[in-house]
Write a structure and sequence with these properties.
The chain is of the alpha+beta class. 28% of the residues lie in helices and 21% in strands. Strands 1, 12, 13, 14, 15, 16 and 17 form a 7-stranded mixed sheet that branches. Strand 19 and strand 20 form a beta hairpin. Helix 9 packs antiparallel against helix 12 and helix 16 packs antiparallel against helix 17. The longest helix is centred in the last third of the chain and has 18 residues. It comes from Levilactobacillus fuyuanensis. Keywords: Signal, Transport. This is Peptide ABC transporter substrate-binding protein. InterPro entries: Peptide/Ni-bd (IPR030678), SBP_5 (IPR039424), SBP_5_CS (IPR023765), SBP_5_dom (IPR000914).
């Protein structure tokens, strides 16, 4: 999901990238119009699946071998069959006879081969290339040590795709439901050249819907039913209209006037509408956290960020129970660490990973210990005051509330700490975080699939999404072992990941704040929407207005 962006894009990823929860309109006739009117908190930044940072919304227009169904389970996609070798390192997919692009072209095996190579080509500037780790030559290509043409995928014939892995990947099947791995049409890319994906008409689509009226900068766009989609008979919605709404009160007014079928609620609105019959809460495998800039351009601030006592003091000064229950009040919960709860369970015991990653005094409120850690950190640094800026995207309804809370509680508990808030547009926050232009960053990560590695691969030293540039050799070794030597041993791999997550907790290389839950008003006439906590959270393939 997106993903490693400011909290200002959390709602954007949910509203724009994840497609916001479905809702409908009540028609005046006995047969309601199959048209949704949904809000988005930010513009849709790209429709090029190779360059996207989240696919929650565009997961409805692009489809891979599989798609995500109910309860995070893999459902049929463009492939009608799949086989895996005994050593689990060779996967063979057969593409459906009736798989077509939105322009009527046949979707072929070569479209998948071209797609993966294009995404991995440096000139494409894709941000999600790390997802190809473990696929044959994937790690070498990501490191710039091999050509994208050597990625382990080939077209055996027009409808058969063969994928080779360097090692077994426990979550490979669900990974193949992620739109990043969907096909791309080389003929269309070449036809439009520089225009490709700059407007909705310069793109072809493989999913249940296609995009219209998107120009790259507008505040409105639509999804319309793709009549060339292989399973078009089950798609009942004719159109989904999106409108950018950055103010919760504006969104609520539009909802009440039936100009929108859905409204995301702010913290104050949640308190007022919690008992309303239209009130809905949706959980996500998204953990909002503080990111520290370990390579801060300011040398003094860099020293502060690299002091573990200072980071631990900050973590211990935050009352997460108060933050989630009283400040936010939207159903968000206290995390136990960097990995979200409810994401994955121990293959042997069935226990939640989130419980096993727990470390004492990592996400608990302990102001007394915080003061001790703070004093020790200041002494080590030889300073008496700390002045830091916190960067956050202002597009999310919670960003201002959370940053104000952090300023209040940190300055109250930590003597000599001055925290300056920088709430900026989400696009600005994303740009600045990518270039390392921040001290503290109110950030988040949402799982792309139901496995802890979706979180744990981000802090690896070599990962481009590790914007704070934290680096730890032991951590890197644990993740390398989980993805390499122990990849085929579920229990050993699990143990590696637990130890890695505990290390993050102890170091406070990232400070978890809360696991997001989002509240909405949603019309009761909407049926058949699929919501998941990870990956492409919202699917409208089976949605309809009753």
């Amino acid at each position: 999901m997106k993903k490693w962006t400011s909290i200002g894009l959390v709602a954007a990823v949910i509203a724009m990238g994840l497609g916001l929860a479905a809702c409908g309109q009540t028609a005046s006739t006995t047969k309601p119009s199959q048209e949704l009117k949904l809000p988005a908190t930010a513009q849709l930044d790209t429709i090029d699946l190779a360059k996207a940072t989240g696919y929650g919304q565009t997961g409805n227009v692009f489809e891979s071998f599989y798609r995500l169904g109910k309860n995070g389970k893999v459902a049929p996609g463009l492939a009608d069959s799949a086989k895996v070798s005994k050593d689990k390192k060779t996967w063979t997919f057969h593409i459906r006879d009736n798989a077509k692009w939105s322009n009527g072209d046949k979707i072929t095996a070569q479209d998948f081969v071209y797609s993966w190579r294009r995404t991995l080509t440096p000139a494409t500037k894709a941000s999600y290339t790390t997802m190809f780790s473990g696929i044959k030559n994937g790690d070498k290509i990501i490191a710039g040590k091999a050509s994208p043409d050597t990625i382990g995928i080939r077209a055996k014939d027009q409808q058969t795709v063969v994928i080779q892995l360097d090692k077994p990947i426990a979550y490979f099947k669900i990974l193949m439901a992620y739109p990043l791995f969907a096909p791309q049409n080389e003929k269309v890319v070449n036809k439009y050249g520089k225009k490709y994906a700059t407007k909705s008409q310069y793109m072809v689509y493989s999913g249940p819907f296609k995009i219209t009226n998107w120009s790259g900068t507008g505040n409105t766009w639509s999804f319309v039913k793709n009549n060339h989609y292989w399973d078009k008979k089950v798609v009942k919605l004719q159109k989904i209209n999106y409108q950018v709404v950055t103010n919760p009160q504006t969104g609520l007014s539009l909802y009440q006037n039936k100009k929108l079928d859905f409204a995301q609620l702010s913290t104050e609105q949640v308190k007022n509408y919690k008992n309303n019959s239209a009130f809905k809460e949706y959980p996500y495998s998204i953990v909002i956290h503080l990111k520290y800039n370990f390579k801060d351009a300011n040398q003094e601030k860099r020293r502060i960020m690299n002091n573990r006592n200072i980071r631990q003091a900050i973590a211990l000064s935050i009352n997460r129970s108060q933050l989630t229950k009283k400040v936010l009040g939207d159903g968000s919960v206290t995390p136990t660490g960097f990995v979200a709860s409810g994401l994955a369970s121990d293959p042997k015991t069935g226990e939640d990973f989130a419980k096993q990653q727990t470390v004492k005094n990592a996400t608990t409120y302990n102001p007394k210990l915080a003061k001790q850690k703070w004093a020790a950190g200041l002494k080590q640094l030889g300073i008496k005051k700390v002045n830091l800026n916190i960067l956050a995207g202002n597009d999310d309804v919670a960003a201002s509330t959370v940053t104000q809370y952090l300023k209040s509680t940190l300055e109250k508990n930590l003597s000599g700490f001055n925290l300056k808030i920088e709430n900026v547009p989400a696009s600005v926050a994303q740009s600045r975080s990518t270039s390392g232009d921040f001290d503290l960053y109110l950030s988040h990560w949402g799982a792309d699939f139901n496995d802890p590695i979706s979180f744990l691969q981000i802090p690896v030293s070599s990962n481009a999404l590790n914007y704070g540039k934290w680096s730890n050799k032991r951590y890197d070794a644990l993740i390398d072992k989980a993805q390499g030597a122990d990849a085929g041993n579920n229990e050993a791999r699990w143990h590696d990941m637990v130890q890695a997550s505990k290390l993050i907790n102890k170091e406070q290389s990232f400070t978890p704040l809360y696991q997001a839950n989002y509240a909405y008003l949603q019309r009761s006439t909407i049926k058949g929407v699929i919501h998941n906590t990870a990956g492409t959270q919202w699917s409208y393939k089976y949605a309809y207005i009753k």
